[in-house]
Amino acid sequence: MIHSLSSPPLGKAAVKVAAALAGVLLATAACGGGSSGGGDASGTAGLKGKTVTFVGYGKDNPWGASFNGVFVPKLESQGVKVVDLTTMDPGTAVTNFNQAISNKPDLIVAALLDTSSTVVPIKKAKQAGIPVLVFDGRPDPSVDGDVMQVLSDSEALGTAAAQNLVEGLKAQGRTSGSIIAITGTKSGFAAQDRMKGFDAELAKTPEYKVVDIQDGNWDPTLSGKIATQLFAKYGCSGIQGAYGMADYQALPIVAAAKQAGCPVGGKNGLIVTGSNCFKAGIDAIKGGTLYGTATEDPGTIAEQTADYVIRYFNQQNPPAKELVKEERVTAKNVAQFAEQCSKA
User: Which domains does the chain have, with CATH numbers?
Assistant: First the structure.
């Protein structure tokens, strides 16, 4: 208790009471009972009663299911109400985004399946005074300054995939090779930026050429069907390398190749790389059927995105953009990333 200079002097009993209260306040502060206003993202003072409308990837997608399984419980444990409007359909995602604005939450957290079609909803959210946090893939440049962002380093992931393929093909002694690529949703920048990094890296070795690129929409079943069609079209001798933009897209390529009677891996077989590392991908690298992958595991970015939300609600002023560091993974360093990549 602090008195002004004009206050009358305290009696001895009052002094003792004031000293005791001061001791209690100091002990409470030392134990973290008060809000520090920064540094520790685990504080719950600013989160209780907040509502987040989550327009993320649907749980029918393996990466989305794993991300959601980390992101949602972490926020809910802090007292945040999370409204699930997740989907893997780009058109439905736009409808859900508009519904999110109608809900008037404290924050919208969104994955942008179709970058261009989400421009208008983002502008509407800004006009309505509703903040938006985008994760994984970046927004359209026209609204880049209207949202907060926690982004995967998509170009680095594409670069890693090209390096994996070139390294694998060279190790087989191949001086040329035809490559197929099955991407995530092409209308989103996550897939576009990966192909940008992939194409730029592959251009350094023009003897290895991409002969076919198909949109797999981040769907393992669709990716398997596309791969089956491509092996029927080109035959085993017409494809030497393959890029599945996620491990769960790369492994159906491996399965389709085997079904078509094509050898995989080894000295003469198809070289396949993935990304968005999963336990199944790590196991395939150890088994020799998948040459490599890259990080961008859902658990790591889910933790960082949830942490960002916590810091935001606690008024700790996180930066407008955060980039998740990515790493290339092959048999040479698979042990280093096995734990991180085996949580999904």
Answer: 51-152+298-313 (3.40.50.2300), 154-295+331-342 (3.40.50.2300)
